[in-house]
Amino acid sequence: MRQRRPANIWSLCSARNRAPDAHTGGPIHIHYIHDGPIPSLAANAVQVTKMCAAFQANGASVTLTVPAGRVATNDEVKAEYQLSSDLVVRRLRNIPMPGSKLIFGGMAVVGRWSSDAIVFTRSVSVSRMSTLFGMPTVLELHGPISMLRDNMPARLRRVASRPSFRLVVVISERLKQDYEATFPEFRNRILVAPDGADPVNGHPVDAVPLTGSFRVGYLGHLYPGKGMELIERLAPLRPQMTFHIVGGRPTDLSRWRERTIAIPNIIYHGHVPHAETRRYLASMDVVLAPYQRVVLGSGGGGGAANLADWMSPLKIFEYMAEGKAILSSDLPVLREVLVDRGNALLRGPEDIAGWADGLSTLETDARLRARIGAQGKRDLLERYTWNQRARAIMDAVTGKTSQAGLRRCS
Fold first, then answer.
1. How far apart are CA 151 and CA 159, in angstroms?
2. What was the pLDDT predicted at 115?
3. What is the pLDDT confidence band of residue 146, given thresholds at 50, 70 and 90?
4. Is pLDDT at 19 greater than 60 in this prediction?
5. Mean pLDDT of 148-175
6. Residue 384 has pLDDT above 80, yes or no
7. Residue 44 CA from chain centroid, whole number
8. pLDDT class for 121, splitting at 50, 70, 90?
9. Could you give all domains of the chain from N- to C-terminal order, each with its CATH number?
10. Which residue has the higher pLDDT, 371 or 105?
11. Residue 11 has pLDDT above 60, yes or no
């Protein structure tokens, strides 16, 4: 008599891995599964926590699952990222071994299945496991296909083939084009949703009193291509202005401090908690987004991947929320959000004289500064708040018509 083969995890999942019924219109339960630590110095921690809060503000119940790491209470996470509501954070041990992200994804989805639950993740590996278990899944991608290493493209193709896969969210039109060219099965299932920021009212009463009569600010990391290369050349051309740099890892800070030691009008403030950044922005007269043609990520490498081709920088939207006049690099992907002499002044990354002239114009023309800042704030409120972004995603998943002003699937 032929012996029956024991069931394995793949066969056990197959019964669930059929097209789930359409959402019934009741409350949505979102299981946001993130494979990185929170809190973290990485910008993705800001984006993840803000989106969780925004989903909640739009009526969803949210559980955020992250790898166990530095112990932080849910209240500490709320304070760190200035969240408007309590966030339930679930921590799972991440075992450092080959296939650890798949294992983490499997552990995160086990026991989470329900007819009104949706998995949201920025991890291809997690989405592979959640779709395998038949859970409706939304995958957000912030990098091009060239960033997908090893077997990730094949894994992504399997995700796309699963009936439970719902939507890809990308942060720029360039990324949408990149994925549609390689994965035609994603057509009509890609939503372009640039990053965002929370709206703010007024200025913080405890603003940091920055030195200088005209204060030029930069907020963010100091990775190659982020713009310190430009600021290093720009600051000596405008010695009457003070350049305040907020952010950076200790190793990057040390390198840039040593490199610019002879430029007295550059002041480094180092990393500050995200909740504190508003106190610095409030005292800045002009803010910079000085991206180069090639921008590297936190790993300092990235191979063929160039952030400058597809990014949607958080700092842009946080600048806009504060109503600050922005002087930015003129890059195609940034023109998806920024308009020259509308909500920003745009200059080519190589045009140092143009940057210097732009700063002088903004210094002497207070009306222009105010007009650009006000337009940026209006654009943020009309199109780029986290709540609008979350609503557009939820509408796309449930089949409703979005009112958020974001670019729908096409």
1. 13
2. 63
3. confident
4. no
5. 92
6. yes
7. 5
8. very high
9. 16-196+385-398 (3.40.50.2000), 215-383 (3.40.50.2000)
10. 371
11. no
Give the Cα separation of 110 and 376 in Å (integer).
Answer: 43
Contact partners, residue 405, CB within 8 Å, separation at least 6: 382, 383, 388
For residue 410, pLDDT over 60 is answered with no
pLDDT at residue 320, as a whole number: 98
The encoded tokens of residue 236 equal: 């000596």
Give this prediction's pTM: 0.89
What 3 state SS string does the chain have? Answer: CCCCCCCCHHHHHHCCCCCCCCCCCCCCEEEEECCCCCCCCCHHHHHHHHHHHHHHHCCCEEEEEEECCCCCCHHHHHHHCCCCCCCEEEEECCCCCCCHHHHHHHHHHCCCCCCCEEEEECCHHHHHHHHHCCCCEEEEECCCHHHCCCCHHHHHHHHHHCCCEEEEEECCHHHHHHHHHHCHHHCCCEEECCCCECCCCCCCCCCCCCCCCCEEEEECCCCCCCCHHHHHHHHHHCCCCEEEEECCCHHHHHHHHHHCCCCCCEEEEECCCHHHHHHHHCCCCEEEECCCCCCCCCCCCCCCCCHHHCCCCHHHHHHHHCCCEEEEECCCCHHHCCCECCCEEEECCCCHHHHHHHHHHHHHCHHHHHHHHHHHHHHHHHHCEHHHHHHHHHHHHHCCCCCCCCECCC
Q: Degrees (nearest 5) of the Cα angle 54, 58, 60?
A: 95
Handedness of CA 321, 323, 327, 333 (dihedral sign): positive
Comparing 390 with 83, the larger pLDDT belongs to 390
